[in-house]
Amino acid sequence: MKKILNPAALLLAACLLLARTPLAAQDSVSWTSLEERYQSVLGQTYRSGGINPGGFDCSGLQKYLFKAYGYTMPASSSSYANWGRSIERDSIKPGDFLLFAGRSAGSIGHVGLCVGRAEGKILMLHSATHSGVLIENWVGQSYYERRYAGARRGIAFRFEDEASEASGPIAAQDPEKAL
Predict the structure, then answer these.
(1) N or C: which end of the chain has fewer CB within 10 A?
(2) 75-87 b/e (C-beta count within 10 Å ≥ 16 → b)
(3) Which of 15, 58, 114, 130 does the annotation list as catalytic?
(4) Does 15 participate in catalysis according to the annotation?
């Protein structure tokens, strides 16, 4: 006896499989798009373990921001220590992840995202226990200066508003140059 497959059942099965398929990470992320995304969560409160609007911890904020682009970010700030590639402090640029030691010596306890750099300032987007999601210059703040543990680069960005590839912070057309 021949079984006849129900087209509606096949369609439903295909939809269920696709719904469970994770989004593929983009080759590069539009900086303008990321700015819009992070602007929408500025001022959200800090919540330990938080990964959604309404409350973020530092690594949860990064997970939320980059999930929309298909990236699975490290689950904890300490996991960023081996993620991407190490960047020297004088080479930090927007899109780099900033790492800070925690209260325990030798471990990473905080992660932020560089969103700007000018005149000796390095602006960091992060979720802090004292004020939630904010952007602040960490350079010169003794709390962050003494805990600074390094920077990591792992995602290529496209800076659409730059006049040319040469003048932009990274090469917009070649993600490998960004990494």
Answers:
(1) N
(2) ebbbebbeeeeeb
(3) 58
(4) no
Q: DSSP readout, 89-127? A: GGG--TTPEEEEE-SSTTSEEEEEEEEEEETTEEEEEEE
Provide the pLDDT for residue 135.
Answer: 98
Residue boundaries of the structural domains of the chain: 24-178
**Contact yes or no for 170/159 (Cβ under 8 A):** yes
Over its C-alpha atoms, the chain yields an Rg (Å, rounded) of 19
Q: Which of 60, 93, 95 is nearest to 79 (CA)?
A: 60
Sorted by sequence, the CB contacts under 8 Å of residue 23 that are 6+ apart come out as 69, 70
Query: What stretches of the chain show up as alpha helix (H) in DSSP?
Result: 7-20, 31-39, 58-67, 142-145, 175-178
Whether 130 is a known active-site residue: answer no
| Residue 91 token pair | 């080479």
Write the pLDDT tens digit of every residue in 97-110.
999 998 876 799 99
- Supply the pTM of this predicted model: 0.77
